[in-house]
Amino acid sequence: MANLTVRDIVEIYQIRIQLEGLAARVAAERMDAAGLAELIRGLDKADKAARQGRTDAAREHDRHMHKKIIESTSNGRLAQILTTLDDQVHRIRQRALSHPSRVPATLAEHRAMLDAIAKRNPSRAEKTMRDHLQAAPENAIHMALAGTVF
Q1: 6-145 has CATH 1.20.1440.230 classification
Q2: pTM for the full model?
């Protein structure tokens, strides 16, 4: 599999920010209470694990949360488009969340996003998702320029 370039990262995240922002907006309108409770429990566990130095839990929660938000839209086309990016996004996510300072920030961003969904605030959910995703390519580009291979 070819390495991702800075241009690849920019292009992937231009698409991802827009589409997952939409997914968060729709999730704030449609996600059921059980799905939201599951994500909050997972976030609490990931936060505890990260404080113990186990960042693998944060990476797993990140992937699961994004997947569940997309699924909650019940929009098959949206899910299909984002699935085509999943392998590349996963490679970026794995590297980006290996940076120690990014894990606590990611978990805090997830908490804000789930809070917006819980409050059924579509515009806030969309904004928190977009803000969260904007940090990922900035970090990944910085790492790529420093020689990290994606």
Answers
A1: no
A2: 0.89
